[in-house]
Amino acid sequence: MALNKWNNVHPLTLSLLSGLLLTSAWPNTALTIGLLFAWVPLLLMAHQKGPAFPLLRYVGLSLFIWNTGTTWWLWNSTGFGAVAAIVINTTLMCIPWWGYIKMRRYFTEMISLISLVAFWLTFEYIHLNWSISWPWLTLGNGLSAFTSYIQWYEYTGVGGGSLLIWIVNLLVFHSMVSLKEGKQKTAFYFSGFALFLIALLVFISQQLLPQKNKLTEKTNVVVVQPNMDPYQKFETLTTADQVNRLVQLSVNAIDSNTVMVIWPETAMSAADWQDNIKVNPYYQPIFQFVAAHPSIQLISGIETFKQYGNTAATKTARKTNDGIYYDAFNAAVRLQSNQEPVYYNKSKLVPGVESLPSFLRFMAPVFEQFGGSTGGYGVSDTAVVFRDPIAQLNAAPIICYESIYGEYVTNYVKSGATMLAIMTNDGWWGNTPGHQQHLSYAKLRAIETRRWIARSANTGISAFINPRGEIEQSLAWDKRGAIKMAIPSEQKLSFYVQYGDLIFKLAAAVAAFFVVVYFYKKSTHARKAN
């Protein structure tokens, strides 16, 4: 389409184009490059139509297409949850654009666009940290398909990826506008700088790639994938059958050099009090396995409860009919011969399904009807590291949804984790892009922390991921089995581990500055008008 005809393109077409570009570029596809110009149609629309144009309705359509096209698979788990997630997330994503629309009334186009980037990055940062967090579509996640080119995430985290995507989009936009205005030289500068920036970051990535030396460790880690359909888990298998399958797969995979076995989220599903699991009859084969192999630490997902007596010790504590307060946990446990169980309770809970913020408690009966938790799960106050002083392989027990939180994962590493153990159950979504995206995001945690990852997924995809973000070994979807690999103990702390999401925090400061200046401009304008 000729550049001078962009003015004649209907806004609906531009809106659809942005939405489709964002969707088609999302992992795992070969079209990730589309993220570098996916915002351009909307930016062209804003440029052509002026501040009075009802831009937000078309932005909302683009964002709705993106959310629906990339996270529709949530429907397999809960139809209500899928609709709620798509609608709410679309609405929240409109807020940075709404701020940009407001800014256009008092500032130049360039300043307004800078504010849009700051507002968007601030939104992503808030969405990583508040009570209804759903950062699945953080822009920086979209580059996870090309880990060789984003090794600089060890400094910036996903915030750097989000910023890069916006910068390149703005450069492409300004190049197109300059061409339309007959400024070929200016257009050349904008497009040339975009290409230079991308080439520079690719070059830097190649320099940052850790050496890929031949592994010489004598110890190994076993990851088990039991492949139990979560919807038929108790209809087709008894609890004893499930335990026996996990134990047998582990026995068949270990050898004399195995120091760790990892099972997936809620693998130990006979929910019991945390101080009672050692005598739980269902778990006796597990403790027999541990006792028979004293050099092995078993790390598993588990469903547990903890009593507090007559005192509500936490905000999430529930009350029995007998007046006893307790918490329910989606937890991880470390078991080793002659040692007491060590627990970590999942702290990043799925909104609606595992937790409800206080301002949504009135909807508890609705979420319960569609598979949610009215009381919510309890959480651990801090990230817990499962330590093995003999093997010197200290594992970060990361449970499912937690693996998409880069800065949160750094807490494990700062506490001494030398590897990341991800336990998940992606079977709720079926064989859809959901489990593939989740695996892809795990590669970003490897780069950010420069740690090996051992990922145990109930129905797949289980994998070993090296500190370069490369999958070294995997077990495919819908397969039963185990994989084994020698994992070195990494000690060095990356820049990102030490300092976290600096780009997001800087963007938040810039956004706050813009808001203050906006209200100052607005009040000044109002006084002059009077």
Brief description of this entry?
With 530 residues, the protein is α/β, with parallel strands linked by helices. It is 44% helix and 15% strand.
Keywords:
530 residues; eight-stranded mixed sheet; Nitrilase/N-carbamoyl-D-aminoacid amidohydrolase; 44% helix
How does this structure look, described?
The structure is a single chain. Helix content is 44%, strand content 15%. The chain contains 16 helices and 13 strands. The chain has helices spanning 11-24, 40-49, 55-71, 79-103, 109-129, 153-156, 158-180, 184-208, 233-236, 239-253, 284-292, 364-369, 406-414, 433-449, 495-499, 502-529; strands at residues 220-225, 258-262, 268-273, 297-309, 318-319, 325-335, 342-345, 395-399, 419-424, 452-457, 462-465, 471-475, 481-485. Strands 1, 2, 3, 4, 5, 6, 7 and 13 form an eight-stranded mixed β-sheet that branches. Helix 5 (109-129) packs antiparallel against helix 7. The longest helix is centred in the last third of the chain and has 28 residues, at 502-529.
Output the CATH homologous superfamily of the largest domain: Carbon-nitrogen hydrolase
Characterize the main sheet: 8 strands, mixed
Radius of gyration: 25 Å
Low-confidence parts, pLDDT < 50 over ≥5 residues?
Answer: 366-374
Number of strands: 13
